[in-house]
Amino acid sequence: MTTLPSLFISHGSPMMALTQTPAHEFLGSLGAQIDRRDRPRAILCVSAHWESRQPVVSSASVPETIYDFGGFPDELYQLRYPAPGAPDLAERVVGLLADAGLPCDRDLARGLDHGAWIPLLLGYPAADIPVTQLSIQHHLGPAHQYAVGQALAPLRREGVLILCSGAITHNLADVQQRRAGGVPVDGPSPDWAAEFEAWVVDRVEAGAMADLVNYRAGAPHAAMAHPRDEHFLPLLTAAGAGGEAGRTMHRSFEWGSLGMAAFAFG
Fewer Cβ neighbours under 10 Å: the N or C end of the chain? Predict the structure, then answer.
């Protein structure tokens, strides 16, 4: 079986499922792009929207669709992603992390949050590939999340697509202010967002993993782009699993400052 890449995608607002934007169109083509290389036998999602004290993987045989958001149109809450779970993959994840000295718990009931199921709904709408989800540990920092990715790297040779979901820039206060001011979804980006995104693209394509891990010290406008780390951390897991420089798959912004870039590693 072909070694699959590890991916980082920016999942945007839950309205990504319904709103025709460049990022929506990209995610809609993602499954076909991956399948041209080799169709995954299973998918492991690492989403910014599941945090825990130490790694936890879902062992659910039928993961529910989690609506971890509020105030959106009723149409969004009618969507479901009824993919089968991947308990065997969950056990493999537990073993790989244990081998790396990273204890991992199992959650028998955890479903898929919107950082996982909305991109999957667009990329693999048939929901016929088994999928499970692994949590992140914001409090342990970027180096930890990179190490998690390194531990998961063997999965890429086993037909597993590692899909890490966050945002290249994620300052919701700024996004909400722009929306309240009437900025359209395709409105112009502020300099700080464009400069931070360009720095990340450059570092990813150069394979400068240490710079990415230490992005708060070296990236321009890091505190503005990410007041909190959780939406950047999945990028580090994807980079760790890929083990080499990444390729930029998509670049766009929504609501001015919400970065929607995506990368493939390995």
Answer: N
Inside any domain, residue 1? no
Q: Tell whether 113 is covered by a domain.
A: yes
For residue range 239-265, list pLDDT tens digits in order: 999 999 999 999 999 999 999 999 999
Contact between 235 and 263 under an 8 Å Cβ cutoff? The reply is: yes
Compute the mean pLDDT over every residue in the chain, rounded to the nearest whole number.
Answer: 97
Residue 175: partners with Cβ closer than 8 Å, 6 or more residues away: 255, 256, 257, 258
Distance CA(125)–CA(92), nearest Å, equals: 26
Contact 162, 241 (CB under 8 A): yes
pLDDT confidence band for 1 (50 / 70 / 90): low
Q: Is residue 206 part of a domain?
A: yes
Give the chain's radius of gyration (CA, Å): 17
Paired tokens of 208: 């400068």
Closest CA to 113 of 170, 69, 149: 69
Sign of CA dihedral 251, 48, 108, 110: negative
Quick check: 2 pLDDT over 90?
A: no
Interatomic CA distance for residues 76 and 247, integer angstroms: 32
Tell me how many domains the chain contains: 1
Mean pLDDT of 133-139: 98
State the angle between helix axes of 233-242 and 141-152 in degrees (0 to 180), rounded to the nearest 10: 40
**Range of the structural domain that residue 261 is part of:** 6-265
- Tell me, yes or no, if the pTM score tops 0.90: yes
> Which pLDDT band, with edges at 50, 70 and 90, does 223 fall under?
very high
